[in-house]
Amino acid sequence: MCLLLAFPAAAEFNLSGSQCPHIQVLHRQDAGQVHEQYRGALESPQPAQVRDLVRAVNLLGPLSCLAVRRVAFINLAAEPEVIGWSMADSAQDLVYLNSASQALWDNLRLDGSPTARALAAQNFVHEASHVAVRLLQSRQRAEPADGEWSDVRVKGPRQRPDPSLWGDAAARQADSSIEALGLDRGVIRAWVDLHESWRSKGLAAAYYDDAWDHEATAEQDHAANGFASAYGGQAPIEDIAELAGWAATRPLFTAGARTAYKGAACEALRAQAGSIPDELAAIHAKLRFLLRLGVIDQAAFENCTGRAAREP
Ligand SMILES: [Zn+2]
């Protein structure tokens, strides 16, 4: 009797039915595991939140799947524009989701918009990509340089991720990605080298700095600049996360959703009837890199590139 009663609750609150069953969704009593500033705001998950989380988790590439070990729902009511985040200075395998986000849960409560839920999934894959980069940084030979950390706006010395946070399977996957792509100098260094190789041909722009005006660049121009989105153009680490997020979640966006909500890069690639034009070659190369890394899977690659995946 007790077992029968207990089973549905347990099934609602873990991710055993997903492709990443190891991911632990924290409950209120797990407050000791989250950053101290969020301990009072940690909430146990609701069934609808877990259902959406499973949907997002199932879109992760194999490396990102193994990298994320924990998810916490935080009631961050003071910052309703924040959907999710992760932190490079503590619990580096943990993705935080804002249960008070207007972009997400208000719509859910109203039985609402598929676009809001798709955006939340995009944000989750984005944050999971940051976690995957940290897993790689914990195993790569080179110490990450300034500006290569996943929250670039925090200045000062950083702590390299502790590889023992992750299990053997994650370590094996990370090591095989590092070896396959020759990432001895680090994953971000390799990404910047790739970007610069296109920039030197005049087929990508410099990363936008803090003075850059988001409004001044049309959404569709970011792809031609070599970036997944305006946000991705800010820094390599965000470029990786944005491109992975938009590629993976493309099928969740309905045809009527605004282009800006679906990511400039995938929209631009999918609009091409024939081969990839020069101005989108950088984005295409970056998608191939993410696929080989395991940050996205084959389905995400094909969703973003369209047209028979356009292998050269
Ligand atoms: Zn980010």
Question: Can you give a write-up of this model?
Answer:
The chain is mainly α. The chain is built from 13 helices and five strands. The chain has helices at residues 2-12, 47-57, 62-67, 102-109, 114-139, 168-181, 187-199, 219-224, 236-249, 259-262, 264-270, 281-293, 298-305, and strands at residues 24-25, 42-43, 70-74, 84-85, 94-98. Strands 1, 2, 3, 4 and 5 form a five-stranded mixed β-sheet that branches. It starts with a helix and ends in a 7-residue tail after the last helix. Residues 1-12 and 104-111 have low confidence and may be disordered. Bound molecules: zinc ion.
Brief summary:
45% of the residues lie in helices and 5% in strands.
